[in-house]
Amino acid sequence: MGIIEVNIMKRLFFYAFALFNLILLVYSMAYDYMTGAEIHYDFYGAFFVCWLIFFGILKAILGI
Question: What is the pTM of this model?
């Protein structure tokens, strides 16, 4: 595998992982809404900010 293929795989992994986490966030909010649970927006906001920090660090490590 050449450098270009490895770079594409890093990007694919990064963006697939990010998409998975966004889907997880939306699903968890929808599940709380459907079950009638109280939606804690501060919790979901903290979840989102933590993942933004994590993905910023991951992006720097992978060199994307």
Answer: 0.70
